[in-house]
């Protein structure tokens, strides 16, 4: 039986991907190169340090560890300037409604995100109280596709992995859920999110009925 739902943040609850993209693009441009929207897809669900390493690789740029830290901080400053402007209307369609439906029938809810800024984002859109637990980039050391973030979520909710359903938009996230022995609903395209038990376009297509049939 399903006892808990664990939600990824970027791409599932909010579309912060556009802000990540703008900030990374600005950083790349400041270093004298650019990258495509297609390349940007590879950054989804990937940690900040790993994203920077990928981008520097695309530009053929080598930086010391200290310089990398500085660049990651610069990107985050630009990113947070945009996040700080976020309004509750920016929650993705159906997300709040589905969270409410889950909680109304006694299902536990957790956030399972790679972001170190998740608390600020939840506060900006006003849904902090919709989660029984928040597991994010500050609490885990192994990035998706490692299942650590979701396993920590299950534990915080007092649920076994097989009692959890994960909602994810990134390939690495779907893989992490599967590696953690959890059911997973992909948010996006079926041919991209292979292995998910169900793929939908957004949480506005999700119902408790579909959840219990997984
Ligand atoms: P931060 P998710 C991920 O969020 C983003 O998809 C990814 O692009 C970002 O690099 C990562 O969070 C870390 O974010 O720089 O805020 O710590 O999809 O796991 O909710
Ligand atoms: Mg995501």
UniProtKB/TrEMBL annotation:
<dbReference type="InterPro" id="IPR006439">
    <property type="entry name" value="HAD-SF_hydro_IA"/>
</dbReference>
<feature type="binding site">
    <location>
        <position position="8"/>
    </location>
    <ligand>
        <name>Mg(2+)</name>
    </ligand>
</feature>
<feature type="binding site">
    <location>
        <begin position="43"/>
        <end position="48"/>
    </location>
    <ligand>
        <name>substrate</name>
    </ligand>
</feature>
<dbReference type="GO" id="GO:0005975">
    <property type="term" value="P:carbohydrate metabolic process"/>
</dbReference>
<feature type="site" description="Important for catalytic activity and assists the phosphoryl transfer reaction to Asp8 by balancing charge and orienting the reacting groups">
    <location>
        <position position="113"/>
    </location>
</feature>
<keyword id="KW-0119">Carbohydrate metabolism</keyword>
<dbReference type="InterPro" id="IPR023198">
    <property type="entry name" value="PGP-like_dom2"/>
</dbReference>
<dbReference type="GO" id="GO:0000287">
    <property type="term" value="F:magnesium ion binding"/>
</dbReference>
<keyword id="KW-0597">Phosphoprotein</keyword>
<feature type="site" description="Important for catalytic activity and assists the phosphoryl transfer reaction to Asp8 by balancing charge and orienting the reacting groups">
    <location>
        <position position="144"/>
    </location>
</feature>
<keyword id="KW-0479">Metal-binding</keyword>
<keyword id="KW-0460">Magnesium</keyword>
<protein>
    <recommendedName>
        <fullName>Beta-phosphoglucomutase</fullName>
        <ecNumber>5.4.2.6</ecNumber>
    </recommendedName>
</protein>
<dbReference type="InterPro" id="IPR051600">
    <property type="entry name" value="Beta-PGM-like"/>
</dbReference>
<keyword id="KW-0413">Isomerase</keyword>
<feature type="binding site">
    <location>
        <position position="51"/>
    </location>
    <ligand>
        <name>substrate</name>
    </ligand>
</feature>
<dbReference type="InterPro" id="IPR010972">
    <property type="entry name" value="Beta-PGM"/>
</dbReference>
<dbReference type="Pfam" id="PF00702">
    <property type="entry name" value="Hydrolase"/>
</dbReference>
<feature type="binding site">
    <location>
        <position position="75"/>
    </location>
    <ligand>
        <name>substrate</name>
    </ligand>
</feature>
<feature type="active site" description="Proton donor/acceptor">
    <location>
        <position position="8"/>
    </location>
</feature>
<feature type="binding site">
    <location>
        <begin position="113"/>
        <end position="117"/>
    </location>
    <ligand>
        <name>substrate</name>
    </ligand>
</feature>
<dbReference type="InterPro" id="IPR036412">
    <property type="entry name" value="HAD-like_sf"/>
</dbReference>
<feature type="binding site">
    <location>
        <position position="169"/>
    </location>
    <ligand>
        <name>Mg(2+)</name>
    </ligand>
</feature>
<feature type="binding site">
    <location>
        <position position="10"/>
    </location>
    <ligand>
        <name>Mg(2+)</name>
    </ligand>
</feature>
<comment type="similarity">
    <text>Belongs to the HAD-like hydrolase superfamily. CbbY/CbbZ/Gph/YieH family.</text>
</comment>
<feature type="binding site">
    <location>
        <position position="24"/>
    </location>
    <ligand>
        <name>substrate</name>
    </ligand>
</feature>
<dbReference type="InterPro" id="IPR023214">
    <property type="entry name" value="HAD_sf"/>
</dbReference>
<dbReference type="GO" id="GO:0008801">
    <property type="term" value="F:beta-phosphoglucomutase activity"/>
</dbReference>
<feature type="binding site">
    <location>
        <position position="144"/>
    </location>
    <ligand>
        <name>substrate</name>
    </ligand>
</feature>
<dbReference type="InterPro" id="IPR010976">
    <property type="entry name" value="B-phosphoglucomutase_hydrolase"/>
</dbReference>
<feature type="binding site">
    <location>
        <begin position="8"/>
        <end position="10"/>
    </location>
    <ligand>
        <name>substrate</name>
    </ligand>
</feature>
<feature type="binding site">
    <location>
        <position position="168"/>
    </location>
    <ligand>
        <name>Mg(2+)</name>
    </ligand>
</feature>
<feature type="active site" description="Proton donor/acceptor">
    <location>
        <position position="10"/>
    </location>
</feature>
């Amino acid at each position: 039986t399903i006892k808990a739902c664990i939600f990824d943040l970027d791409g599932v609850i909010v579309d912060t991907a556009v802000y990540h993209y703008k900030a990374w693009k600005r950083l790349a441009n400041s270093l004298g190169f650019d990258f495509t929207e297609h390349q940007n897809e590879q950054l989804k669900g990937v940690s900040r340090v790993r994203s920077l390493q990928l981008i520097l690789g695309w530009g053929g740029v080598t930086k010391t560890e200290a310089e990398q830290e500085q660049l990651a901080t610069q990107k985050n400053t630009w990113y947070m300037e945009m996040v700080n402007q976020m309004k509750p209307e920016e929650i993705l369609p159906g997300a709040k409604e589905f969270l409410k439906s889950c909680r109304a029938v006694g299902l536990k809810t957790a956030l399972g995100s790679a972001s170190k800024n998740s608390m600020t984002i939840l506060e900006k859109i006003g849904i902090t109280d919709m989660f029984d637990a928040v597991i994010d980039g500050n609490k885990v050391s192994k990035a998706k596709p490692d299942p650590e973030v979701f396993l920590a979520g299950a534990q915080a909710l007092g649920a076994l992995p097989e009692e959890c359903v994960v909602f994810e938009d990134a390939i690495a996230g779907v893989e992490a859920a599967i590696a953690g022995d959890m059911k997973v609903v992909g948010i996006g395209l079926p041919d991209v999110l292979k292995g998910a038990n169900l793929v939908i376009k957004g949480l506005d297509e999700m119902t408790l009925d579909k959840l219990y049939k997984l």
